[in-house]
Amino acid sequence: MNGAQAMIKCLEAEGIELIFGYPGVAIAPFYDAMYDSSIKHVLTRQEQAAGHAASGYARISRKPAVCVTSSGPGATNIITSLATAYADSIPIIVITGQVNSELLGRDVFQEADMRGATQSFVKYSYLVKNVDDIPRIFKEAFFIANTGRKGPVLIDIPVDVQMKELSKEFKYPDSVDIRGYKPNTKGNPQQMTKVIAAINSAERPLICAGGGVILGNGETTVREFCEKYQIPLVHTMMGIGVMAKAHPMYYGMLGNNGKPYANNAVANCDLLIIVGARVADRAIPRPKNLEKKLTVIHIDIDTAEIGKVLGPTIPLVGDVNNIFRTLIESDIHVDTAQWIRELEAFKKSTVDHRVWSDELVNPMTLVQTLSDKMDDDAIYVADVGQNQLWSADNYVMKHGRYMTTGGMGCMGYSIPAAMGAKFCEPDKQVVAVCGDGSFQMSMYELGTLAVNKIPLKILVMKNRYLGLVREYQHYNYQDRYSGVRLHDYPYYDKIAEAYDMKYFEASDNESMPGIIDEFLASEGSAIMVCNIDSQDITK
Amino acid sequence: MRGIFSVLVENKDGVLSQISGLFARRGFNIDSLAVGETERHDISSMTIVSTGDNRTIDQIEKQLNKKVDVIKVRRLDETKCIEMEMMLIKVSYNATNRSSLIEICSVMGAKILHVSNKHLLIEIHDSPEVVENFISLVRPFGIVEVQRTGTVAMSKN
Question: In this predicted complex, what is the ipTM?
Answer without folding.
Answer: 0.84
